[in-house]
Amino acid sequence: MSRILHVAAVQRRIGPDPQENLAALLADIERAAAAGARLVVLPELHNTPYFCWTQDAAHFDLAEPIPGPTCAALSEAAAAHGVVVVGSLFERRAAGLYHNTAVVFDRDGRLAGRYRKMHIPDDPGYNEKYYFTPGDLGFEPIDTAVGRLGVLVCWDQWYPEAARSMALAGAELLIYPTAIGWNPQDPPEEQARQLAAWQLVQRGHAVANVLPLVAVNRCGTERDGGDRFWGHSFVCGPQGELIAEAGETPTLLEAQIDLDRCETLRRTWPFLRDRRIDAYAGLLERFRG
C-alpha cells in the first residue's frame, strides 16, 4: 500500500514587518491544511527580509532563541491544524553565537527536531559567514508523523555530500528551505543558467539518493537594487521528475508524493549497494590535486 504524502510549499515575498510576515505564513499553514496537506514547508529565514546583504551588527537583534516566540506560533499552528511544519529561523544560541536553523514541529505541536545550516556562503550580497556559525548537529533526519525528514538549508543544496549523508541516515524526503535570487546586473542568459543549475543539482540529489525532494524559495525583490529572489519552488520525485513547480510569484505549491515508491526504485537502482565505501577516503580531503 502506497504512502501518499500531501505536501505544501509556501513561496512568499517577505515584507518589512516580521509580525505581518509571520501572520501571513500562519494563514498559509491554515490554508494548506484545509486543502489536505500533511506537511507544510516555509522558506529560509521567513520572518524578515533577507538581511545578509550587508554586515551590520544591529541585525543580530533579529535573532531569537529556540524555543522562542516564532517557535510558539509555529507549534500552535501545527497542533491546531494537525500538520507537520518546517520553519526557518535566525537562532540566538548565546551572545555572539548565532545559527541559521530549521525547526520541525510535529502535528501535535511538539518540537520534533532542528537542523543548523552546515554550509555557510560568503558571496557578494550573501554575507552569511558574518552572521551564522556553521551547524554542529550533523546531518540527522528528523522523525515526524509523516516520515523521516532530511532537512537541509539553502547553500547546503549545492553539496551532494549533504544529501547523501541524510540518505545514509535513513531520510525518506529531502527538504530545502531556500533564499536565492538573481543579481540584476547579470544578463538574462546568465540568470537562466543559474536557475537551471539550481534546479538541476537538486533533482540530481533526488536521483542519486532515490528520494523525493521539496525546495522552497522566496520570491520578489526586498530592497532597492538588490537581488530578485527567483521563486520557482518545486517538488520532484525520486527519479528527479518534476511533480509541481511554482513561478516567480507568491504561491502555495501543493503536491502528492508517494513515499513507498523509493523502495521499489532502489531494488532496480541499488546505488547504496554499489557504493565503493572502501575507495572514498579522498572525499575527506579539501583537494587532492
Summarize the structure.
The protein is of the alpha/beta class and 289 residues long. The chain has helices spanning 18-34, 69-81, 128-131, 160-168, 188-209, 261-268, and strands spanning 4-11, 39-41, 84-94, 97-105, 111-116, 142-144, 147-151, 173-177, 181-182, 213-216, 219-221, 228-230, 234-236, 242-245, 251-258.
The class by helix and strand makeup works out as: alpha/beta
- Gross morphology is globular
Give start-end ranges of low-pLDDT stretches: none
Regarding quaternary structure, how should these chains be classified?
A: single chain
Strand order of the largest sheet: 5-4-3-2-1-15
Keywords:
289 residues, alpha/beta, six-stranded mixed beta sheet
Report on this structure.
The chain is of the alpha/beta class. 25% of the residues lie in helices and 27% in strands. It has a single domain, classed as Carbon-nitrogen hydrolase (Nitrilase/N-carbamoyl-D-aminoacid amidohydrolase), CATH 3.60.110.10. It has a six-stranded mixed β-sheet with strand order 5-4-3-2-1-15. The chain has a six-stranded mixed β-sheet with strand order 6-7-8-10-13-14, covered by helices on one side. A three-stranded antiparallel β-sheet has the order 9-12-11, covered by helices on one side. The mean pLDDT is 96.
